[in-house]
Design brief:
The complex is a heterotrimer. Chain A is of the alpha/beta class. Helices cover 29% and strands 22% of the residues of chain A. Chain A has five helices and ten strands, in the order ααβααβββββαββββ. In chain A, a hairpin with a 7-residue loop joins strand 8 and strand 9. The termini of chain A are far apart. By secondary structure, chain B is an alpha/beta fold. In chain B, helix 4 packs across helix 7. The longest helix of chain B has 18 residues. Chain C has three domains: 110 residues, no CATH class; 252 residues, NagB/RpiA/CoA transferase-like (Rossmann fold, 3-Layer(aba) Sandwich); 62 residues, no CATH class. In chain C, helix 9 crosses helix 10 and helix 16 packs parallel to helix 18. Chain C is globular. Classes of the chains: A alpha/beta, B alpha/beta, C alpha/beta. The interface between B and C is large, with 66 and 60 residues.
């Protein structure tokens, strides 16, 4: 099979059909996609700090949010949450990973308006550790929390480059596929803890 | 203000009191009403069923008849027919000689409640009617002509009438023109959901701006032996 | 599996109307989805601006699709993805099957993708000896039941808890239970075994970002992350229309899609995948293959009215808002894509002859247009397709065409119109067929003894 043929034919088909459309296009096109993106008016919770806003939104989707103010407090919290549990390691064999109870990762950014943590898997081996075990603990610096989705997307982009594997996580995994009844914890983690470290 | 009545073929044949009520109401608010009896239909049935050539023939006739009128406005007691006239631009998009004429007619054509509220600025036409009633938002009037508050403002000024909103007032009644007879079972299934809501609202009458919806709703209410009556907005506003 | 056909839509719909349990499920689901969508839209003060902006972005991409597609491919391939082009379903299946066979794959995990449903990928892979499992819970349920999805985002919406439980007991040997958490955890543990040993993961793509060569996939369950992170080969199937020019455009679309589909501000997970791993020791698949699928999409570019079909982001909001869908559900349409969007793209994808009923299965109420995040004017499209169908079927619509020719002849001659009304008044008892379709369920107003114009002439 010659893929070059398929490409050429599809491109030819696109161009031919766009040409057919051209006489009708002048009347109704409004395609200025270089328009600046719409500005959202401030939300009613604008008086909250970015950390408080993040916490409120994460908890609204059944995530746990713990705020700490020192490295010691951070270590103690992680210890408390992982006491007696098998902690996943990014370097262990798959079979062990699937038997882990909890995965601990950093988070490279956060989005306050949705309570989202952002994982960049080229910076930290967090892709599977944040996904396979039933509990995920994400450690997020308060200084890395953006207010809006738009700001976060801009921060993730450097010209036309973005990291190869970025994941946004907003709460534990869920489904409503069975009679619209909400079930928390499907394939991804059933519990998500985000520890926000204000001491940075 | 001089008004040319566009009565619609449906009202002409099946519900003339909507026409006579519209004339009476327009006169009561000070309009001079003329009726050109060369008018027939806006062409909606053909357009909606896919017969654009036939629709164009009838639409041209409509345009010619109403171009002869010196009236300030063409007023119709039907949201869907008014919306059809506003869609003439689409029928004649490839015909520059008719496009301008179609757009000019469309600009002068108004649905009744829209005309009263937006053009004349009149909310109270001096009507009175005792009882509890509700409003069904006919789809074309609601979504093509943005009629939502206008009929409600007119109804709230009817002395003695107790207005309640029906649940899902904006839901389709299931008529849809030829859809009602091409897929009658689906049409009636959709209709029954509207009927249930009307019955739950405990009203004596349901009012709407389109005779087609009222035929659909009224036809099912009477088949079910309901005491609820249907009334066109023009008929309600003509009650004194 | 007995899949219904679009050609028997009328009968399919009647059968669906007789299924009380289906209608109850549909009523609950569409009411709840509709309510959540409304609340989510109301929570954003700039909702209408977002819709307009989204439509403007899509119009731009589609108008210059050739250019954007080539740039996307260059950018994706520079970063390690291998891009394949498929003119139709058969070609796409052949490419994917070959890729899987070449890699000695036996165990394939799939995440929910309407595009892969469209090409009937699973059947093709199974014919080549592969085991394919759907990992999205709703898709897994219907795969076990040997059915097709009945809704674009909630495939098993037509099934009750009880039915799912019975299915799991029969197919998986699960102990009988009605508890949704138990059902979910049964699916979780069964599917984890498949994830752990999968050779190939196949997904769809929600958005392809031209500027950066990124594919974006959106979900709530986590199965897409597993499908696209664990196996060494990831195959992503993407319709050619799924492009967005800039990474920043996601600010608009990630706000519109989850709110329109389920009423969420954001779905649980978004995966942004750009090429393959940069270092061999990094996590993630060794290979990323992106299959670009045409399958009739390029034809839709030929007119602005049809081109807007390609703006669809597959949110499902139109289904939930549609009074017809609400009564009959998805299977009656007999097509991969049901509801309002299905009624307009199915005839365009598979040919209007095979789906000629679908554009007529609508009351043209416009509720779909109102909720569409990219402002597709579905009623306009339906009317356009209706005129295409009548134009291309002169023979098949003989009686109807004749009736409308007669109608036009009468309506352009007012005197003849009046005589016809008089005749109709006299002979109205004798108009059987369309009248019977009406009177089966509804009383019919008779033609009045005096028409409005007769009254006017008499009293003026």
């Amino acid at each position: 099979m010659n893929t070059g043929d398929a490409r050429a034919e599809i491109m030819r088909s696109i161009r031919a059909h766009l040409a057919t459309s051209a006489p009708h296009d002048t009347t109704n096109t409004n395609h200025d996609a270089s328009l600046p993106l719409p500005v959202q008016s401030p939300s009613p919770t604008a008086e909250l700090s970015v950390v408080e806003l993040f916490k409120q939104n994460l908890e609204a989707v059944d995530g746990h949010c713990i705020i700490v103010n020192s490295e010691t407090e951070l270590e103690e919290t992680v210890k408390r949450l992982t006491e007696g549990k098998k902690i996943a390691s990014p370097d262990e064999p798959r079979s062990d990973l699937f038997k882990s109870d909890v995965g601990v990762t950093g988070a490279q950014a956060g989005i306050a308006e949705t309570g989202t943590v952002v994982l960049d898997s080229s910076v930290d081996r967090n892709r599977l550790v944040s996904l396979v075990p039933p509990v995920h603990i994400a450690i997020l610096d308060a200084s890395r929390i953006y207010t809006t989705l738009g700001e976060t997307l801009a921060a993730l982009q450097s010209g036309d480059e973005v990291s190869p594997a970025i994941t946004f996580i907003t709460g534990p995994s869920r489904t409503a596929d069975i009679e619209l009844t909400l079930a928390i914890g499907v394939h991804g983690p059933q519990e998500l803890y985000v520890i926000i470290n204000q001491n940075t | 203000m001089k008004v040319a009545l566009f009565v619609t073929c449906l009202v002409d044949q099946l519900w003339s009191s909507v026409g006579t009520s519209s004339v009476a109401v327009l006169r009561r608010v000070g309009c001079d009403v003329e009726f050109d009896d060369r008018q027939t239909c806006c062409a909606q049935p053909a357009f909606n069923t896919g017969y654009r050539n036939e629709a164009r023939q009838v639409a041209k006739r409509f345009i010619e008849v109403f171009e002869d009128s010196k009236a300030d406005a063409i007023v119709s007691p039907s949201g869907s027919c008014t919306a059809m006239v506003h869609h003439y631009a689409e029928l004649f998009s490839d015909d520059p000689s008719w496009l301008g004429r179609a757009q000019a007619i469309a600009a002068r054509t108004h649905e009744l409640s829209s005309f009263l509220i937006r053009v004349l600025g009149v909310e109270d036409v001096g009507a009175s009617w005792q009882g509890k009633l509700t409003w069904h938002d006919a789809c074309h009037g609601l979504r093509d002509l943005n009629l939502k508050s206008e009929p409600r403002r007119l109804i709230r000024n009817v002395r003695g009438a107790e207005f309640v909103e029906v649940e899902n007032a904006e839901s389709c009644c299931g008529f849809g023109g030829t859809f009602s007879v091409k897929y009658p079972e689906i049409s009636v299934a959709i209709l029954d959901q509207k009927i249930e809501a009307i019955e739950r609202a405990g009203v004596q009458a349901v009012v709407s701006g389109d005779a087609s919806c009222l035929m659909q709703i009224g036809g099912r209410l009477s088949r079910k032996g309901s005491k609820v009556r249907v009334m066109h907005l023009a008929e309600l506003l003509n009650q004194t | 599996m007995n899949q219904l056909s679009s050609e028997t839509f009328g009968e399919n719909a009647k059968a669906a109307l007789g299924d009380a349990q289906l209608r109850g499920a549909l009523r609950n689901a569409t009411t709840l989805f509709g309510k959540k969508r409304r609340e989510a839209a109301a929570s954003l003060s700039n909702w209408e601006e977002l819709r307009s902006q989204a439509r403007a972005i899509k119009d731009e991409v589609l108008l210059h699709l050739d250019r954007y597609l080539e740039t996307f491919v260059t950018n994706a391939e520079t970063r390690g993805a291998k891009v394949h082009w498929a003119r139709d379903a058969a070609e796409a299946n052949a490419i994917i099957t070959r890729l899987a066979v070449e890699r000695g794959a036996r165990n394939v995990v799939k995440s929910k993708s309407m595009t892969t449903e469209e090409i009937h990928l699973n059947a093709a892979l199974e014919r080549a000896g592969m085991q394919v499992v759907e990992t999205d819970l709703g898709e897994y349920i219907i795969q076990l039941a040997d059915e097709t999805p009945s809704h674009i985002i909630a495939p098993a919406i037509h099934k009750t808890k009880r039915q799912v439980a019975e299915l799991f007991t029969t197919e998986l040997g699960m102990a009988p239970t009605d508890d949704v958490d138990q059902l979910t955890s049964t699916a979780r543990s069964t599917l984890r075994e498949r994830f752990a040993t999968a050779d190939v993961g196949i997904s769809g793509v929600n958005f392809g970002i031209v500027e950066t060569g990124t594919i974006v996939i959106v979900e709530n369950e986590g199965n897409i992350r597993l499908t696209t992170s664990l196996p060494r080969t990831h195959i992503a199937v993407m319709g050619i229309e799924k492009l967005l020019p800039r990474f920043a455009d996601l600010d608009v679309f990630l706000k519109l899609l989850p709110r329109s589909g389920t009423g969420q501000a954001l779905s649980t997970y978004q995966s942004f995948i750009t090429g393959t791993k940069r270092n061999a020791s990094d996590e993630g698949p060794e290979e990323l293959h992106v299959i670009l699928l045409d399958n009739g999409r390029s034809r839709m570019l030929a007119h602005p009215v049809t081109r807007q079909s390609l703006a669809c982001i597959r949110c499902g909001a139109c289904l939930n808002a549609c009074p017809v869908y609400q009564q009959i559900g998805g299977h009656a349409y007999g097509s991969v894509y049901p509801g309002p969007i299905g009624s307009v793209i199915t005839p365009q994808l598979i040919g209007i002859q095979k789906a000629a009923q679908l554009p007529f299965a609508s009351s043209l109420c416009g509720a779909c247009r109102e909720v569409c995040p990219v402002k597709i004017d579905i009623p306009q499209l339906l009317l356009h397709l209706r005129s295409e169908i009548t134009d291309k079927q002169p023979g098949g619509r003989g009686k109807e065409r004749l009736a409308f020719k007669l109608w036009a002849a009468i309506m352009t001659r007012p005197k003849l119109y009046e005589k016809t009304v008089i005749a109709g008044r006299l002979f109205q008892r004798w108009f059987k067929p369309p009248v019977k379709a009406w009177t089966n369920g509804r009383d019919l107003r008779p033609i009045e003894a005096e028409s409005f114009r007769e009254h006017w002439r008499r009293t003026r």
